[in-house]
Design brief:
Layout lengths: L2 E8 L5 H16 L4 E9 L2 E11 L2 H12 L2 H6 L3 E6 L1
Antiparallel strand pairs: 1-3, 1-4, 2-3
Length: about 90
């Protein structure tokens, strides 16, 4: 059974440049991972400080591998302090 993550990341103005710098690589690397079905991060049209996140991985193992990689990635380290709200199904 696959894993779907959906939610958002809140980015204060002081961190927008950092997110914009690291996000393209984060998306590219995530999409290239084994088991990644889809991966989308975009600015909320109603709130420019909120990034909407939708991910799907084919298996729990693929999702867990993604989570482990992200924690030590440039993206993960640069954005670890940002507030996230996710639902995982």
């Amino acid at each position: 059974m696959g894993v779907i993550l959906s939610g958002y990341l809140d980015v204060p103005n002081s961190d927008i440049a950092t997110v914009k710098r690291h996000l393209p690589t984060h998306i590219r690397l995530s999409l290239a991972e084994d088991g990644c079905v889809s991966f989308d991060v975009r600015v909320d049209s109603q709130n420019p400080n909120r990034y909407l996140v939708d991910e799907e991985f084919a298996t729990k193992a693929a999702f867990e591998a993604h989570q482990a990689r992200v924690k030590t990635s440039e993206w993960g380290l640069a954005t670890a302090h940002l507030h996230r709200e996710y639902k995982i199904t």
